[in-house]
Amino acid sequence: MKVLIVGSGGREHAIAWKVSKSPKVEKIYCAPGNAGISQIAELVPITAMEFDKLTEFAKKEKIDLTIVGMDDPLVGGIVDAFEKEGLRVFGPRKNAAILEGSKAFSKDLMKKYNIPTAAYETFNDANKALEYLENASFPIVLKADGLALGKGVLICNSLEEAKAGVKEIMLDKKFGSAGNEMVIEEFMTGREVSVLSYVDGKTIKTMTSAQDHKRAKDGDQGLNTGGMGTFSPSPFYTKEVDEFCKANIYQKTVDAMAQEGREFKGIIFFGLMLTQSGPKVLEYNARFGDPEAQVVIPRMKNDIIDVIEACIDGKLDEIDLQFEDNAAVCVVLASDGYPVKYEKGFPIEGLEKFDDKEGYYVFHAGTALKNGKIVTNGGRVLGVTAKGNDLKEARANAYEATKWINFQNKYMRNDIGKAIDEA
Q1: C or N terminus of the chain, fewer CB within 10 Å?
Q2: pLDDT at 378
Q3: Is residue 26 over pLDDT 80?
């Protein structure tokens, strides 16, 4: 098979790596890709939102399967564009990707189908939102309705903070048109857990659990980022939690989407909060998480091509999805100053140390090739991932491996997976 992967981050590198392990695949392309992906795939200089050029390329090269890694093209309708041309593609159509594309839509869906989530109100008028806040209890959560690179969520501890947040999202348009509408919801406390799943429109198969670390600095301080590191599995995701979610959240979401005439095929990422009154949905994403993919995919035993084809063909019930009985931890190496302001273009040293190390991986996110050298080219530069027999061993291995890599302004959190100690 010839496979095209759309995207350029650490998630897409993890997908490309897994696809390269399939005996069914002889050639991988990635548009636009990055320096790490270029070692296993041919890079195509087309961006993820250039649907016409991508479909044209897929037809010309006789691509057998396209895998879309990113949220923007999915929400924008890339799957519809490929299907219209008779091309085989993995991901939800535009009318199903709205599950991630609009927080107001997903909250309303949960309310209608009785899927547990935080109490909320939706606003498209800043003055009404400000009025509502006058009688609200704090802390409270403000969410831009649309896509905001994982950064459109504000936790406000006071009325002043919340008013400033409304101004930021709806009036100053900090997140662009994502802030035309806004969700204000109750602040939930508890452990956060991510559960990724494969969906074929009717059947859902969940993957192993994971937990992301969103804040830029140690101790969950600093600004929200796209994610500074992950571990898998989560010790807080117990058998009881799994049973509750299977009965009240996972299948109900798939059935609700089908009921609404929005059949969902692809990946549903469930962001869960384990509250005192039981698990609740924080958010849905319509694709692999980044950096969750970097710890979940390496633990998956199945050939990813088999699973993806079963999703497209509505035969997921025939797949026995299996994961290794071990653990993985990913530590993101970022450019100092991320997520606000940072410099790019610094040479990266030590990547070759991962070449023959079983159970150690370096997934590229913001990298580029410059004069034959791999250089930094983004806020999140690399995801250093390691496996271990358990979480503590995987964590020790991942942090040891971060020492193998050097570049100017290298920055990371030093407490990824620290919650493991409390489990």
Answers
A1: C
A2: 96
A3: yes
Same domain as 300, residue 205: yes
Spatial separation of the C-alpha atoms in residues 217 and 220, rounded to whole Å: 6
Q: Which of 104, 99, 25, 32 is nearest to 69 (CA)?
A: 32
CA dist 91 and 287 (Å) reads 7
- Cα dist from 232 to 66, 237, 380, 386, whole Å: 27, 10, 20, 11
Which residues pair with residue 121 across a beta bridge? Answer: 184
- Indicate whether 204 and 255 sit together in one domain: yes
Residue 422 pLDDT level (bands cut at 50, 70, 90): confident
Quick one: tokens of 326? 């071990």
Asked if residue 337 and residue 417 are part of one domain, the reply reads yes
Q: Is residue 100 part of a domain?
A: no
Sheet architecture: strand order including 182-186 = 120-123, 182-186, 140-144, 153-156
Question: Quick one: average pLDDT of 342-369?
Answer: 96
Whose structure tokens read 């050939």?
A: 303
Strands (DSSP E) along 8-163, which ranges? 27-32, 42-43, 65-68, 89-90, 120-123, 140-144, 153-156
Cβ–Cβ under 8 Å, residues 362 and 354: yes
Please check whether residue 373 lies inside any domain of the structure.
yes
Same domain? For 206 and 289 the reply is: yes
Round to whole Å and give the CA distance between 10 and 25: 21
Residue 402 lies in a domain: yes
Cα–Cα dist 62/46, whole Å: 17
Does pLDDT of 423 surpass 70? no
Domain range for 365 is 327-422
Query: How far apart, in whole angstroms, are the C-alpha atoms of residue 231 and residue 394?
Result: 9
CATH of the domain at 134: 3.30.1490.20
Residue 151 has pLDDT above 90, yes or no: no
Cα–Cα–Cα angle for 303, 305, 307, nearest 5°?
Answer: 75
Interacting residues of 337 by C-beta distance below 8 A, sequence separation 6+: 343, 379, 409, 411
Q: Where are the alpha helices (DSSP H) in 137-260?
A: 159-166, 239-245, 251-259
Mean pLDDT score, 393-398: 97
Phi, psi (deg, nearest 5) at residue 253: -65, -45
Is residue 238 included in any domain, yes or no? yes
- Indicate if 157 and 275 belong to the same structural domain: no
Question: Which among 205, 260, 256, 253 has a CA at the least distance from the CA of 95?
Answer: 260
Number of domains composing the chain: 4
Query: Global pTM?
Result: 0.94
Strands (E) located in 259-317: 265-275, 278-285
Domain of residue 234, CATH code: 3.30.470.20
